[in-house]
Amino acid sequence: MNDKKRLKRIADEKNKLANQKLIALTFDDGPNPTTTPQLLKTLSAAKVPATFFALGKEAQQYPDIIKEESDLGNEVASHTWDHKDLVTLSPAQQKQEIESANQLINKITGKNVTLFRPPYGSYNNSVLCQTDLTAVNWSVDTNDWRYHTSAPVVQNVATYAHDGAIILMHDIHQWSVDAVPQIIQNLKAQGYTFVTVSTLLDIRNGGAKAQQVYFGR
């Protein structure tokens, strides 16, 4: 997309969502053949878009789920190929981990998403400089991997949600997926509008910049 079209898209998004409380749900480590389809039904029924940071090795195994995520209006981006801590790798390995997943996911979806999420939120300048992609971390950590019930996941979102937040969850855990209907209900009741990470960055940051990292406000 050229700069003129990109600026027009951002202006249109700002006009549409002006003065609204925005929030982005993100889901890491999938897709999972059992829990991800369930989550997609929940999001679709609620008309809520999300951003999926998928692992390349899982996308390779379940391309139909990746395609469905995208076709339903969600954003799908790289979470690297197999979840290595990027700062422990050589520059060439960092590039391979990020780019291999990004290229596969874009090929499956037919889109050119330029975001990635570094595993564990771990990055340094070398990681950021290996590609022209944009790193995305989070401002609300549900800590869902710690639990085996949905209640604390719902509570963590309720406690820490704020305008401009990027919420970290994982679509590989059943209890996390089970928490989503209540999370959506609670946030909608508080007047939040759900957007993808790219839309959030368009509106609040004038668009995602290459080789930068964003956390959500």
Tally of DSSP β-strands = 9
CATH class annotation: Alpha Beta
Question: Mind describing the biggest β-sheet?
Answer: 6 strands, parallel
What is the annotated CATH architecture?
Alpha-Beta Barrel
Cα shape: globular
Query: What's the mean pLDDT score?
Result: 96
Quickly give the structural class: alpha/beta
End-to-end gap: 26 Å
Number of continuous helical runs:
9
Which spans of ≥5 residues are poorly predicted at pLDDT below 50?
none
Per the CATH scheme, the topology name is TIM Barrel
Order of helices and strands: HEHEHHEHEHEEHEHEHE
Describe this protein with a few key phrases:
46% helix; alpha/beta; three-stranded parallel sheet; 9 strands; 16% strand; six-stranded parallel sheet; single chain; TIM Barrel; 217 residues
